Amino acid sequence: MRHIIAILxxxxxxxxxxxxxxxxxxxxxxxxxxxxxxxxxxxxxxxxVAIGTDRIIEQITKQLNKLIDVVKLLDLSEGPxxxxxxxxxxxKAATMDQRxxxxxxxxxxxxxxxxxxxSTYTIELTGSGRKVDSFIEALAEHKILETVRxxxxxxxxxxxxxxx
Amino acid sequence: xxxxxxxxxxxxxxxEGVEYIxxxxxxxxxxxxxxxxxxxxxxxxxxxxxxxxxxxADGYARATGKPGVVLVTSGPGATNAVTGIxxxxxxxxxxxxxxxxxxxxxxxxxxxxxxxxxxxxRPCVKHNFLVKDVNKIAETMKKAFYVxxxxxxxxxxxxxxxxxxxxxxxxxxxxxxxxxxxxxQPTVKGHSGQIKRAVELLLKxxxxxxxxxxxxxxxxxxxxxxSFVRNLGYPITTTLMGLGSYPASDEQFMGMLGxxxxxxxxxxxxxxxxxxxxxxxxxDRVTGKIAEFCPDAQIIHIDIDxxxxxxxxxxxxxxxxxVATVLQEMNHILTTGNKQTKKxxxxxxxxxxxxxxxxxxxxxxxxxxxxxxxxxxIEIVHEITKGDAYVTSDVGQHQMWAAxxxxxxxxxRWINSxxxxxxxxxxxxxxxxxLAYPDETVVCITGEGSIQMCIQELSxxxxxxxxxxxxxxxxxYLGMVRQWQEFFYKERYxxxxxxxxxxxxxxxxxxGHVGIRIEDPADLRSGLEKxxxxxDRLVFVDIVTDxxxxxxxxxxxxxxxxxxxxxxxxxxxxxxxxxxx
Lengths: 164, 581
Ligand SMILES: Cc1cc2nc3c(=O)[nH]c(=O)nc-3n(C[C@H](O)[C@H](O)[C@H](O)COP(=O)(O)OP(=O)(O)OC[C@H]3O[C@@H](n4cnc5c(N)ncnc54)[C@H](O)[C@@H]3O)c2cc1C
Ligand SMILES: Cc1ncc(C[n+]2csc(CCOP(=O)(O)OP(=O)(O)O)c2C)c(N)n1
Ligand SMILES: [Mg+2]
Known about the structure:
The structure holds 2 protein chains of 2 kinds.
Chain A: E1 2-10, H1 15-25, E2 29-37, E3 43-51, H2 54-66, E4 70-75, E5 81-92, H3 96-108, E6 112-116, E7 120-127, H4 129-138, E8 144-149, E9 153-156
Antiparallel strand pairs in A: 1-3, 1-4, 2-3, 5-7, 5-8, 5-9, 6-7
Chain B: E1 2-4, H1 5-15, E2 20-24, H2 30-37, E3 43-46, H3 50-64, E4 68-72, H4 76-90, E5 95-101, H5 117-121, E6 127-130, H6 137-149, E7 155-161, E8 170-172, H7 192-204, E9 208-212, H8 214-218, H9 222-232, E10 236-238, E11 253-256, H10 263-271, E12 274-278, H11 284-287, E13 298-303, E14 317-320, H12 323-335, H13 343-357, H14 374-384, E15 390-393, H15 397-405, E16 414-415, H16 426-436, E17 442-447, H17 458-463, E18 469-474, H18 479-488, H19 504-510, E19 514-518, H20 524-533, E20 539-544
Parallel strand pairs in B: 2-3, 2-4, 4-5, 5-7, 6-7, 9-10, 9-12, 10-11, 12-13, 13-14, 15-16, 15-17, 17-18, 18-20, 19-20
Antiparallel strand pairs in B: 1-8
The complex binds flavin-adenine dinucleotide (FAD), thiamine diphosphate and magnesium ion.
Residues 91-92, 152, 213-215, 218-219, 239-242, 256-261, 279-281, 283, 285-286, 302-305, 308, 322-323, 395, 399-400, 418-419, 421, 480 of chain B line the site of flavin-adenine dinucleotide (FAD).
């Protein structure tokens, strides 16, 4: 199963490499990883999308918790949560047909065209990982020149928070 | 008080009550060596190779329960230390390793003797630090000792760039009395509800089994374990790492379990209906085939590290906490109120077990007068030392025979590399033990292969007058490898025979020690007695043993507990076994 794990970690040099090193050393599958400081500059928040059986996910969360730099952790997939990922896509848009079709697709997916040249469109789109996947699939007929995905970030719905 | 970084390092060590620091100097740590020179509270032991520094500190830690401390230089000093750090990590041994680093101003420039010590050691430490500010040394050292010794212990590396210990820079110094880390708060007390449930399950058991491990030694819980086992009257087996935490001579002790465990311990594991694992981590050498591990048992597991629980074997009642604390609580429940075990069923269970014991799986060819049997050598060492020696070992067949035939009665006496299986561990580990306990008998059981991996330490032993007794079971083979080749590779002994061995007697003499060679079984006892009579000398006893002897019982890789190869000498030999299915 696909799990979204949110981690609060000490904002220290090398902390991120401990997390990444853990995944490679223990041969865990990682789909995406994002990291940035929080409103408290001493803490960073990492969001990891990991894939594995329940047993593997349990080990992953235990091993992450065991890292001395990890302050707190939450498996968002265990409860209702919101997941967002941003993608920037540059596609070939040279002909009128292409330009129209791409514009229409972007509208359907609530994306925005944020940069235009005579031969390309650059689209920004935000949504769940799956929505981003579908959008990229929908663009299949067109020539995608570049895809930049931010990786998933997530937050629990309702009152539940990950905070110290 | 204003001190230099180097002085702060030594002050911190003093504050932590460090008796010995094992090390080897070099450019990046010269300031620290200079500070060490100017004090005498912390005694420095100069080894001959950094690997030995880490093993010696590790041996010291295993024998005393206190953290071992190491000081090495940057680059090759740090990389040489890695094997010893990984060895300590795998067996959860508390250790603080200070590595010198190139000046912080040149880090990352491929400077002379620069390696990324923090990066290289990351996967084999509990935690590591790079100190980038002289004002942070004291706090970092405090954290290093705290992390290394609490929770599930382990090695911690503190990497200190040379400019941080610069004698020209003095800063205010104070050592924190206490440290708290918001990101590190190990659980000590077990969940009371879980503990109650576990005791209830134990009391209902008809075929219970207690399986304890290194966590009991690490958690200093041997007394609590003994009361627990006696309160219940159930059979107990221990892992290789748990030997000594329960007395080997006790009626309820079934010997070690696992790949080279006893017939009775492994059969009982296979047949039990309730299993309690105490400070043991279900290692693959212990479980054998996962799918057939304790097929009928409900499992309770006490461990301080949540990640040890349900890692390979799913358990029914997990208890996260310190063994001593949890066992005290269990003992309290067992001894108050009218707590009864299923007496009749337990009696019947012991009958079955005694049937397995009757097989006498540890029997070997005792009456051989042609060639020395390695098992006999261990038994005689046990007799001469009255079973009370500190025994270190290397890795191989000799290690297994030491584990099987020495019979440990007390914890912290059996000192070996179980998790990493590091050849070369035995002699330096013995140095650490002998320094900790100068008046005790320290024996290093080794093989002619392993001893050559840290043989240079004979020189260290002379410098510090360490009267270790080295017992080399010399079978002219990398015996454990040869045994696997005999069993699983149709006797194709690929590169497991060692030619051109040195004359160990002369070698010992060249290093200024005493060497004895024993070749005839008739001389075994007298030769060993002679060696142990030389109380103040290191004696290297080179025992020429049976080349083809194998370690029995043996469960082949990936086989179940009831599929053992047994020695041809035990009662009713039959191998492999399949009795219970
Ligand atoms: C050649 C060779 C052959 C081997 N054959 C065998 C064999 O036949 N049988 C065998 O048993 N082993 C064998 N081993 C050793 C094996 O590889 C493992 O090292 C060993 O089985 C692990 O022992 P353990 O489960 O007791 O765990 P340890 O490695 O000792 O780990 C201790 C556990 O206790 C926990 N713990 C630590 N402190 C506390 C505390 N205070 N409170 C609670 N929990 C705590 C830790 O978290 C950990 O889970 C062999 C090794 C070699 C090199
Ligand atoms: C550093 C290292 N290299 C290789 C091995 C693999 N290995 C395990 S046991 C063994 C043979 C050890 O030979 P010896 O010390 O003579 O002991 P014996 O088995 O003969 O008693 C080897 C090579 C190891 N455990 N450690
Ligand atoms: Mg050998």
